[in-house]
Amino acid sequence: MKLRTHYIFSSGLLSLITVFFIPFLYAVFLAGLISFIGNSFIDYFGHEIKGKYISRSPRTHTVYRSILWGLLLSLPIGVLYFVFPSFYFVFSVILDGLLVGPSHMLLDVFTERGIYHKVNGKWRRIALAHFSYANPLANGLAIIAGVIMLLAAMHFVHYYDYH
After folding, report:
1. Whole domain around residue 81: which residue ranges?
2. Is the pTM of this model over 0.85?
């Protein structure tokens, strides 16, 4: 999927989850920040040039490694604890960090090159739908899903106020 698709989808997903722990505007800001950092890193450091082609690498395009990278990249954001001194804020940073990588992998598993997993000690690719990364239908559906999740998060704006 295109990088902007990853940004929108992840931002919607992370906002929908985080809004249960911190106020909506903080949740959207945090989700957008972690989505941008995590997805940019995964795409930038997870692609190699092989001849004329750009290929994904198991360095970042496995489920477990994407979780690790997302968490490591989000932890410095925890320094904002000094601005928003709340256990729930730190919890939200960690939770968003844990989920940004798998949300990236969820979209990439539907592309033609898929993601990596190990089978008998060797890296193998798994792909479910084989869409090209620029397929307008696949990218459009993922963007719509991200927007719907963001709208659903807006529905829970007052949930934080009462709990």
Report:
1. 3-162
2. yes
